Amino acid sequence: MIHVISAVNRHHYEDVIEQHFRLRHEIFVEERKWEGLRKPDSREIDAYDNEDAIYLLALDESRRVLAGSRLYPTTKPTMMSDVFPHLAAVRGCPVDPLVWEWSRFFVARDRRDGALNLQLMAAAQEFCLDQGIERLCLVMETWWLPRFHDIGFVVTPLGLPALVGDSWTMAATIEVRQESLDIVCNRIGMTHAIQHDGPRIDCIARANLCGLAAQRKIA
């Protein structure tokens, strides 16, 4: 199952969060050679790993992190708006409490048989449906596009692809739809993908608060 970890239940998962930062460093820096993310403490943490981030993490019985991704409100500056706005030059970077950024998608090297990829995709749809989130936005390498189409995700590009490093990369939104969740769940033979331990966050309320705080900062 994919565990939902947010500010309201993070105290149950501090060891897991730290482990996941180190696994991200291992994958994105050591394996994929994204040297701009390298940290002396071998923990891959960026400006969006704060109290408003929500983590969807796959754990085994011993609480080993196997895979994960991150959700972040677009009512705050996002990785897309801060780092890759040129990829959304046609439709613009979303700023909406009903649209959340989806990033830092990873699977541990020894678990890449495809099953956890699909579980993470199902978890994102399931969580967002439960929360009333209508769309996800993301920066992705273009080879993800046929994979998303294959599982029934409705993807809308926000601009033209461009080379980022040596990879063709694009910005897009993904519709949150029950039909998309059903397709993925049928593929993986599960009716539910996510597990909640402890209190649950209200994403829309939190995103609205983030938006108000951003407006005050501008004023």
From TrEMBL:
GO molecular function, one term: transferase activity
Transmembrane segments: none
Keywords: Autoinducer synthesis, Quorum sensing, S-adenosyl-L-methionine, Transferase
Claim: Transferase is one of the keywords in the record: yes
SUPFAM superfamilies xref list: Acyl-CoA N-acyltransferases (Nat)
Family that this chain belongs to: Belongs to the autoinducer synthase family.
UniProt lineage: Bacteria, Pseudomonadati, Pseudomonadota, Alphaproteobacteria, Hyphomicrobiales
Family matches, as Pfam families: Autoind_synth
Residues annotated as signal peptide: none
Protein name: GNAT family N-acetyltransferase
GO biological process, one term: signal transduction
Taxonomic source organism: Bradyrhizobium hipponense
